Amino acid sequence: MTKQDLYSLLQGRMSDLTALSDSIWGFAELSLQEYRSAACLADFLENEGFTVERGIAGIETAFCASFGSGKPVIGLLAEYDALDGLQQEAGAMYPCGSGGCGHGCGHHLLGVGSVGAALAVKAYLEEKGEGCGTVELYGCPGEEGLASKAFMAREKLFAHLDAALSWHPGDENRVFTGSNQTSLQVLYTFHGIASHAAETPHMGRSALDAVELMNMGVQFLREHMPRTDSVHYAITNTGGVSPNVVQPEAAVLYMVRSDTVPHAKDLLSRVDKIAQGAALMTETTLARRFLDGTADIVPNAVLEQLLYNNLVEAPAPVYTAEEQRYAAALYATYPHSDSPQPIHEGVVPYIHSDEHDYGSSDVGDVSWLTPTSQILTVTYPAGSPGHSWQNVAIGKHSVAHKGMIYAAQVLGCTVVDLFEDPTLLTAARNEWQQKTANGYTCPIEAGVTPCII
Q: Mean pLDDT of all residues in the chain?
């Protein structure tokens, strides 16, 4: 089976895959609540002849679909959770949502693009015969608010893979290279004593004072953190709306980032001490709840080069005049750099990097257990803001569908290359072993289970 055959196979399945993606766009389910989305993907793969295990790693909306037998075993990563507050009408040219959920990060495309790649690899393995290799697609919920891959990595679910590949919707066709930040999330809840703020203020113990003092303490900490580190927070419970009541409960959610998991844990311990100090100063009690965490990505130049080769070889999307017009209409709705075109075409030249960017992703946890790499393909207009109404609006458009199929073609053919040339996997693993010599430190604290935030 040639790559041209795989390209044609996926083009022939485009209507099935776009219908699947559009269904998940409509479900728009939040982290750990993707019951219909996960079932839709798992049922589809089961009907296509994959063996599906549901509820893996103790997460109801996680699954693994496998096909084939023998080595090598290549993993594909799928996501399908949405974001709160981003509901939009499909094809809109202005914000017109009603406050519900929406796929502002394109995970409805991400999951189905990986499913398409799995279909292409299945066709290849059927032609090659028994024992030629295995493809496993991991349904990974809650990337936006759970980091399920980190919980799955804690259970060593990816450790047996020879390599793992993923992709993400974007505004450029390129290989993701370099690393990113480790991220840890902790909810601090302070409990005090309510009282009348005018008549008996001395009898009250303000939980909101504790939150404010903690935040102030962290502001002073910022001067004394390494340049690799950052801290963000959101007050999730202010204790009420009446100024005449001493607030008996208040909470603040913190996100702590650094370049590695050990460094992030060191920083978090300092934030913990500030929280404890705030409780002491206000005579309140503190409840600390660790929610989730992600590791930094281990970049792999061997896999990146192979993905780039397939990005260049695969038939890149060609856009109609109507698609160009719609992209231009969205492009006009947000500030952007002076891109000459409202939609990027072609492939960004590849230059390997080991530098860290400022974001975080639970793909990093997979990369500590097996060689891992990923691409981005164009599903949005140039410079489209992340997590935006524009991304939701274009999510069911043919521009997005074309980028999804392109990603499926690139990933599918890259997996086939790995099956066909074992030296590529050897080289990728040698590089990975050098970069992970210190071993994986799981960011998830002991005893923590996945939870809805």
A: 96
What value does the CA radius of gyration of the chain take, rounded to a whole number of Å? 23
Tokens of 134: 């295995």
Sequence-separated (6 or more) residues with CB below 8 Å from residue 380: 106, 169, 170, 171, 330, 390, 391, 394, 399, 400
Q: CB under 8 Å to 403, separation ≥6 — which residues? A: 109, 169, 317, 377, 378, 379
Euclidean distance between CA atoms 300 and 381, whole angstroms: 28
Whose tokens are 């507050």? That residue is 85
The distance of Cα 199 from the centroid of its chain, to the nearest Å, equals 51
Q: Are 144 and 360 in contact (CB under 8 A)?
A: no
Which domains, and CATH codes, for the chain?
A: 3-179+296-435 (3.40.630.10), 182-294 (3.30.70.360)
Residues 6 or more apart in contact with residue 437 via CB below 8 angstroms: none
Asked whether the beta carbons of 74 and 136 are under 8 A apart, the reply is yes
Segments of the chain with pLDDT less than 50: none
Residues 339 and 383: beta-carbon distance below 8 Å: yes
Distance CA 392, CA 420 (A): 38
- pLDDT of 453 reads 72
- pTM value is 0.95
| Strand residue runs (E) in 22-145 | 51-54, 63-69, 73-78, 133-139
3-state secondary structure of 20: helix
